[in-house]
Amino acid sequence: MKVSWETMKENYVPLHMRDYCAHELIPLNRCRRKEGPFPWTCHDEKHAYEVCQYEVYQYRKALKDYLVEVGQWNKGQFPEMPSASK
Question: Distance of alpha carbon 8 from its chain centroid, rounded?
Answer without folding.
Answer: 12
